[in-house]
Amino acid sequence: MMERSGLVLGLLALLLLAMATKPAQCKYYSKTMPNIHRKEKVTHLHFYYFDILSGTKPSAVEIARPSLTRNDTSPTPFGSLTATDDPLREGPESNSTVIGNARGIFLSASQDASQMTLVMYKDFGFSAGKFKGSSFGVFSRNPIWETTPREVAVVGGRGKFRLARGFAKLRTHYLNVSNGDAVVEYRVTLIHY
Q1: For residue 145, which of 110, 186, 105 has the smallest C-alpha distance?
Q2: Which residues partner with 140 through β-bridges?
Q3: In 3-state terms, what secondary structure has residue 179?
Q4: pTM (2 d.p.)
Q5: What pLDDT is stored for residue 22 in this prediction?
Q6: Whole-angstrom Cα distance, residue 131 to residue 73?
Q7: Rounded CA gap, 39 and 92, in Å?
Q8: pLDDT above 90 for 11
Q9: Are strands 81-89 and 41-51 parallel, antiparallel or unpaired?
């Protein structure tokens, strides 16, 4: 019993000593940079987004679906979540030059199929041209049945699009309603540094 008491007292003394010792380099470090007002740039981009749900190598794959819609045969039933790695091309033809990809997810967010709306988060990254290695992010609602160019919000960027904000005007160039395959024209306005 005496040994146990000595051990407990020794551990308690060690704990108190550790708490009383001032650790080295414990100060919070922060370096405030001067506010250098950089000139904002406006960049306009034009490309085509290929969202392919069919075939042996689709660029968009359903990853979750509520059990309530398991019998729904539409390509994007309400509540379904889809992961994407869609090519971005210079033109609407399937053989036009790939300039990047849009990776992310979209959620089918409308119970009424006639009001089909997707909520999407996608990172539009460029693998060719003067913006190679840069990307911008979209997080917005996308009402796909709107016939006038619909608008989605640009909420950020990296590389040459650092701190980007802006919008993209979308127009469906091609849509196969039976399998969900689509080609969408994007006209993007980015404000960045």
Answers
A1: 110
A2: 120
A3: coil
A4: 0.77
A5: 58
A6: 39
A7: 34
A8: no
A9: antiparallel
CA-CA distance, 11 to 146, in Å (whole number)? 71
Q: What is the pLDDT of residue 153?
A: 96
Alpha-carbon distances of 42 from 119, 150, 172, rounded to whole Å? 26, 20, 24
Cβ pair 105, 120 in contact under 8 A: yes
Provide the mean pLDDT of the chain: 87
Q: What DSSP letter does each residue of 4-33 carry, written as one string?
A: HHHHHHHHHHHHHHHHHSPPTT-S----PP
Nearest C-alpha neighbor of 50 from the set 104, 107, 89: 89
| CA–CA dist 188, 135 (Å, integer) | 12
Tens-place pLDDT, residues 160-174: 999 999 999 999 999
CB 100 within 8 A of CB 86: no
CB environment 151-171: b (16+ within 10 A), e (fewer): ebebebbbebbeebbbbbebe
Average pLDDT rounded to a whole number, residues 10-21: 65
